[in-house]
Specification:
With 332 residues, the protein is α/β, with parallel strands linked by helices. It contains eleven helices and 13 strands. Strands 12-11-7-10-9-8-13 form a seven-stranded mixed β-sheet, with helices on one face. α1 links the parallel β1 and β2.
Length: 332
């Protein structure tokens, strides 16, 4: 079968992981990449031999590019994903899918109206066998007794700031989506959420359909990092310490990594037109939930109904910055 032609936008930290992963998968062909930084473009072009452009528009105009992976800063996700879907390309966009509920709703509607595949980079859901875990959950005596606990820590964005210094909003969008996505796949749609921030991070609770409850903690800190998800009465799900890094891995290891499995799912869905495990609808549910958590943080840990934030931009939507008509690729 002919490899699927893919373009990659953004060659920062996450973009480089996607670069190594896509190059290791024979099911796809990385046609070209894009990044705004000239030094990055020159280095990657020299190392890989692929064309690296400044603008994402050059990828979207290439007929060999059938799908686009977006690994740029989160403020650019909606604009780039919308342009790609409008151009007829399928899209895999890194999490967070967007920074505003209204933007996420727009992307889902756009993909569904045009029969496009929209996948979101929640790699945590590819780190475990979701189906076998669902079977174990179904064996629990009472569905209403389901309680999950999640812990996730990371070094945080490379901004030169202290790992725990005044970055709770970034934690909500960068760390919490993974565990919320996993819980949503197991329990159904989130219905209410609350959160409180402190010097060491964020603690949050999310209620799901049929009274399932997720209690979570997310924190920026120095290594070693903790990534754990467990459900009362079922086995713990623990991710590898660095599950998405493609550095120093063989092609076989990359293929079976969470990021490799995510990319393979996306590629297969582009061929079959089915929905990926981490699809746009899941991404929308996560953004609605994160937006509720942000509103709760601003309101003293009060419970916020998810339905109340469906059409309301996120409290941190100002991070999206001004829109630009040129689809310049940025470093993630």
């Amino acid at each position: 079968m002919k490899p699927l032609g893919i373009g990659l936008v953004g060659l920062g930290r996450w973009g480089r992981n996607y670069l190594k992963t896509l190059l290791a998968l024979p099911e796809c062909r990385l046609v070209a990449a894009a990044d705004a930084d000239a030094a990055t473009r020159a280095r990657i072009a020299g190392e890989t031999g692929i064309a690296v452009h400044e603008s994402a528009d050059e990828l979207l105009s290439d007929p060999a590019v059938k799908a686009l992976v977006i690994a740029t800063p989160d403020r650019t996700h909606c604009r780039l994903a919308s342009a790609a879907l409008a151009a007829g390309s399928d899209v895999l966009v890194e999490k967070p899918m967007t920074l505003a509920v209204s933007e996420a709703e727009t992307l889902v509607r756009q993909a569904e109206d045009n029969n496009g595949v929209l996948a979101v980079g929640h790699t945590a859901v590819y780190a475990v066998d979701i189906e076998s875990f669902r079977i174990r959950l179904d064996s629990l005596p009472r569905v209403a007794d389901r309680r999950a606990r999640a812990e996730r820590t990371s070094s945080g964005p490379s901004t030169g700031q202290s790992p725990v210094a005044n970055r709770q909003s970034s934690i909500l969008f960068d760390l919490c989506p993974h565990d919320i996505a996993l819980a949503a796949l197991l329990f159904g749609s989130p219905v209410a959420a609350r959160a409180r921030s402190s010097e060491d991070g964020v603690r949050y609770e999310v209620r799901f359909q049929m009274d399932a409850l997720l209690r979570g903690r997310a924190q920026w800190c120095k290594p070693p990092h903790l990534r754990r998800f467990e459900v009362a009465g079922a086995e713990e799900l623990a991710e590898p310490a660095n599950p998405t890094s493609a550095d120093r891995q063989s092609p076989v290891a990359i293929r079976h990594s969470p990021l490799g499995r995510q990319c393979l799912d996306f590629i297969e869905c582009c061929r079959t037109r089915r929905q990926p495990l981490s699809n746009g609808r899941l991404g929308l549910a996560v953004i609605r939930c994160v937006s509720a958590l942000a509103a709760s943080c601003a309101d003293g840990n009060a419970w916020v109904q998810i339905s109340d934030v469906v059409h309301r931009p996120s409290s941190f939507a100002s991070r999206s910055g001004p829109d630009r008509t040129e689809h310049r690729a940025e470093v993630a």
